[in-house]
Write a structure and sequence with these properties.
Layout lengths: L1 H8 L2 H26 L14 H29 L10 H18 L1 H7 L4 E2 L5 E2 L7 H30 L4 H28 L5 H5 L1 H9 L4 E13 L2 E10 L7 H14 L4 E8 L5
Parallel strand pairs: 4-5
Antiparallel strand pairs: 1-2, 3-4
Length: 285
């Protein structure tokens, strides 16, 4: 309906909103499929399971959002110099219906909004990452798509009112450009978060505790040194870690006891998959 009315009315705002909603249908399908795949059990090909499909899907959806936003922005700039005549007769009711549809979508994702839109605290690398509550980046991407749609519909409502009552045809590209910039601004944190996980970055909460984790390993009975500790994020609530421990050469120090204590250290700091390599001082010399 939007694409037909937008073409008839020559409204860039409505056409762009229709294109955005078309991409959003694909994004919703992709997000649903990723949520389904993430529940697959680990196998010989994927020993950590398929949970990272959610992150990959979120990153792809964020790229889609940026592509759409820049396309609309460039088209808006092109219309600034000589704004075409827009026929506002059918714009208002079409955009209102579109806004109502998106408002329903926002209502369905209301429980996720508090966590998924407030995901900013910085760490030492200058990125913005999730706080203590686990975040589903896939759901966050879908939520941003719906919010961006609602903003697009609101922009069309405003521009159609200005066109219908004041013949201010410049309002159409201006509103489209503003909505594009808002979409880009909202999706940048998601791109940073998802991209940081895909390059195996360390979760901000775990990163702040890294010195404590290393200290706990060094404090274990019979451990002389701890080194080569690496921790990275697998998906929203799973951390992976490796560490090398050097044990005393004292034969009374049991290898299995140290390994059990190391597992407890990993578990106490929320690292689900912790691998510990243990060697005795003097081995191999």
């Amino acid at each position: 309906v939007e694409i037909m009315v937008g073409w008839y009315s020559n409204s860039l705002g409505l056409i762009s909103d229709a294109g955005h909603m078309l991409f959003d249908n694909f994004a919703l399908f992709l997000g649903l499929y990723a949520a389904f795949m993430s529940r697959w059990a680990a196998d010989s090909d994927n020993s950590y399971g398929y949970g990272r499909y959610e992150i990959l899907c979120a990153f792809a959806n964020a790229i889609f959002l940026v592509f759409i936003a820049f396309t609309i922005l460039f088209e808006s700039i092109d219309r600034f110099g000589e704004p075409p005549k827009v026929y506002g007769k059918h714009l208002l009711w079409t955009s209102v219906v579109g806004f109502i549809v998106n408002a329903i979508g926002i209502g369905l994702f209301h429980d996720h909004g508090a966590v998924l839109t407030g995901s900013g605290h910085s760490h030492c690398h200058g990125h913005s990452h999730g706080h203590g509550a686990p975040q589903n980046h896939n759901v966050r991407a879908i939520f941003l798509h719906i919010v961006a749609d609602a903003l697009g519909s609101m922009g069309v409502i405003i521009s159609s009112l200005l066109v219908q009552y004041y013949q201010l045809y410049l309002a159409d590209p201006i509103c489209s450009a503003i909505i594009s910039l808002l979409i880009i601004a909202s999706v940048i944190p998601l791109l940073q978060d998802a991209g940081y996980i895909l390059i195996q970055g360390t979760d901000a909460v775990v990163l702040q505790k890294s010195y404590r984790i290393l200290h706990e390993f060094k404090s274990l009975d019979g451990v002389l040194a701890a080194s080569n500790m690496r921790i990275w994020t697998l998906n929203k609530d799973k951390q992976v870690g490796t560490v090398s421990l050097e044990m005393s050469s004292d034969p009374l120090i049991n290898h299995q006891t140290v390994l059990t204590q190391a597992r407890q250290v990993w578990s106490s700091f929320g690292v689900k998959y912790g691998t510990t390599q243990i060697s005795r001082r003097g081995e191999g010399e």
